[in-house]
Amino acid sequence: MSDGSGDMRPFYDRHVFMCMNERPEGHERGSCASKGAVQLRNYMKARAKELGLDNTRINQAGCLDRCELGPTMVIYPEGIWYKCETAADCEEILTEHLQHGRPVKRLMLHPDDR
Known about the structure:
By secondary structure, this protein is α+β, with helices and mostly antiparallel strands. The chain has a single domain (14-109), classed as 3-Layer(aba) Sandwich (Glutaredoxin), CATH 3.40.30.10. The chain contains two helices and five strands; from the N terminus they run E-H-E-E-E-H-E. It has helices spanning 37-50, 87-99, and strands at 14-19, 56-61, 72-76, 80-83, 108-109. A five-stranded mixed β-sheet has the order 2-1-3-4-5, with helices on one face. The longest helix is centred in the middle third of the chain and has 14 residues, at 37-50.
């Protein structure tokens, strides 16, 4: 979408990708789906709408390669990764990061986390 100046404007201000990967039962790395990621993503989608976050898109993603730390998500354009285990974690990310632009440090994942 063009803003009239020839520059492209993004479709969304922020894009949230939540891992929905599902591995077989007993897999050593686990899977985000078996840790409640589907329910948490559904919660985030509903709450984002309630909060009026119209320029934020909550999507499911395939494997983000951090299932052992999960459920995991990444938010763009910042590229901030989170571990989100509960609806309360999701709520904090929604209100602090997505509404107010303040990343939630206690839930952030770092590249060297394993």
